[in-house]
Design goal:
This protein has 105 residues and is mainly β. The protein has a single domain, classed as Galactose-binding domain-like (Jelly Rolls), CATH 2.60.120.260. 6% of the residues lie in helices and 36% in strands. Strand 3 and strand 4 form a beta hairpin.
């Protein structure tokens, strides 16, 4: 039996996608007893009628892009991404204030 997920808030993914900013400060890094950024976790709650059509990317201020989820032609699941967690280490060793853009299409 498939668990039914309820979503509230958020924004619908439009025809050109959505961008959301994630700000990471030096203070946040130090508060977690780190000297530099080691990895980034992104947790999403995406309701979609075909999960294989959804793309999730994380883009740094200097243009480095991590593809967290790419389109998959054989993924016909109707469950979307309820509370899925994606992780990237592509932005390793960042140590200053940065604002990442999370792009959903």
């Amino acid at each position: 039996m498939m668990k039914k997920h309820e979503y509230e808030g958020g924004e619908p993914i439009g025809p050109h996608g959505n961008k959301n900013a994630i700000e990471i400060t030096k203070e946040m890094i130090l508060a977690n007893n780190l000297e530099t950024l080691e990895h980034i976790d992104v947790r999403v709650w995406i309701n979609h009628t075909r999960r294989g059509d959804v793309e999730v990317e994380l883009i740094s201020p200097n243009g480095i892009k991590s593809v967290l989820a790419q389109a998959r032609k054989r993924d016909d699941s109707k469950t979307g991404f309820p509370g899925w967690r994606f992780m990237t280490i592509k932005h390793w060793y960042v140590c200053d204030l940065v604002v990442y853009q999370c792009l959903l299409r």
